[in-house]
Amino acid sequence: MTQQPFSRPGAVDLSALTQTAAPAGGQPDRSGGAPVAGAGSSYAVSVDGEQGLQSVVEASMTAPVVLVFVSPSRVPESAQMADDLAVVVGEHEGKFLAAVVDVDASPAIAQMMQIQQVPLMMVLVDGRPATQPIPGVAGIDDLRAMFTQLAQQLTAQGIAGRHQPRSAAPVDGEGEDDEAAVDPRYAAAQAALVADDVDGAVAEYQKLVDANPADSEAAAGLAMAKVLQRTRGVDLQAAREAAAAHPDDVEAQTMAADLDLLGGHVDDAFARLVELVRRTSDKERDAAREHLLGLFGAVGNDDPRVLRGRQALASALF
Questions:
Q1: Do the strands 44-47 and 97-102 form a parallel or antiparallel pair, or are they unpaired?
Q2: Would the pTM count as exceeding 0.85?
Q3: Could you report the per-residue pLDDT of 187-242, keeping only the tens digit for each?
Q4: 84 with 90: CB under 8 angstroms?
Q5: Which residue, 20, 98, 172, 271, shows the most beta carbons closer than 10 Å to its own?
Q6: Are 89 and 40 in contact (CB under 8 A)?
């Protein structure tokens, strides 16, 4: 099935979701929903309520999200399709995140998204629909062909981000004592940092990320090592003066943000680049956004400051 650029007149504006407040007495869904049970569910979540939808829209700023709207009561085959989608998405190891919306359980989401029929799939990239909505029941073979082609198209467009798995099976024999031990995979990179060999640390972490893009610890280590690499030998005062004098200069602002991060001013670093994204456009905006995503990775995607930063970035982009 050939996917065409999304151009449906009157499409819902997903950016409004990034400004949705948490319900009284509750907290926003930080994980993008509960993992979907069954095989292939490491990259599939169930979406429950507007906060869950907001989370997966924000997740699409990292890598594509496939929203699938199903109704087990009205179209029983749609439930099997959701399970098959979880399997197929899992085979792409993070290139996609499947987000399943049961319109029977969440009619408000269906109304908000103007869903007229089920099942229906919608691919989101950077918080926006990237293809025409795909209606109807599809078997697992059709889904495999569809997502192989879609992955090729996204790669050709330079969209190479990956989601972190939402669940993982424990390894036999592992426990709290094992978690406390130093993982030998990171020993070379950590030794390089101890020896003040930042370039060596970057190279070692890069090897790990190339071998396993879903390794969140290696990705965070690489991101932080790159911050250290960029700021090595920089005159702190001169860099801050340059940023103050040139508020729209991407190079000056990203350097100041790196220094903010290293100085422990994480929220300040994020706010600086969010405002730069808000003020700039085209290549400058893309550069600021990519740099900010790198800093998110350095801090860690589960950090509440990163979650706040992602919400602010989504708001700035729209």
A1: parallel
A2: no
A3: 888 888 878 899 999 999 999 999 888 888 888 889 989 999 999 889 989 999 99
A4: no
A5: 98
A6: yes
Alpha-carbon span 154 to 97, nearest angstrom? 14
- Dig out the tokens for 15 from the structure: 């950016």
In Å, how far are 66, 93, 235, 255 from 130, measured between CA atoms?
10, 20, 43, 32
CATH of range 14-156; options 3.40.30.10, 3.40.980.10, 3.40.50.1820, 3.40.50.2300: 3.40.30.10
Domain boundaries, the chain: 14-156, 186-317
- Per DSSP, what are the bridge partners of residue 135? 120
User: Per residue in 74-116, pLDDT tens?
Assistant: 999 999 999 999 999 988 878 899 999 999 998 988 888 888 8
